[in-house]
């Protein structure tokens, strides 16, 4: 299939079971029926998981102990949509 914008042959990428058609030239993204709904549902679940993980846990004693520890540097997890938007950039 060709890009409706610039007629370049579309590339296909499978992202967690969702097939994404995208143009490597103009970076346009096209989805088949129902795929946008799947993306929105997965992104919502990802956000809910991040909020749940960030919620305060444990007692005040545990929190006091955690304040004295060196903060661990974690690689920020990427959401499904961030992953999708970085497709073809590298």
CATH topology of the domain at 1-54: Ubiquitin-like (UB roll)
Structural class of the helix and strand makeup?
A: alpha+beta
Spatial order of strands in the largest sheet? 1-2-3
- The mean pLDDT is 77
Helical residue percent band: 25-40%
Task: Please give the oligomerization state of what you see.
Answer: single chain
Give the DSSP E fraction (strand runs of 2 or more residues): 5-15%
Span from first to last CA?
23 Å
* Main beta sheet strand tally, sense and closure: 3 strands, antiparallel
At CATH level 2, the architecture of the domain at 1-54 is Roll
CATH C-level name of the domain at 1-54: Alpha Beta
Helix and strand sequence: EEEHHH
Count every beta strand, where a strand is a DSSP E run of 2 or more residues: 3
Helical stretch count? 3
Shape: elongated
């Amino acid at each position: 299939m060709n890009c409706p914008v610039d007629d370049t042959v579309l590339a296909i990428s499978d992202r967690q079971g969702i097939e994404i058609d995208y143009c490597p030239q103009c970076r346009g993204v096209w989805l088949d029926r129902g795929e946008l709904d799947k993306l929105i549902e997965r992104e919502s679940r990802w956000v809910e998981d991040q909020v749940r993980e960030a919620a305060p846990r444990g007692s005040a004693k545990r929190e006091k102990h955690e304040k004295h520890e060196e903060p661990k540097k974690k690689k920020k997890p990427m959401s499904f949509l961030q992953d999708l938007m970085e497709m073809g950039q590298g």
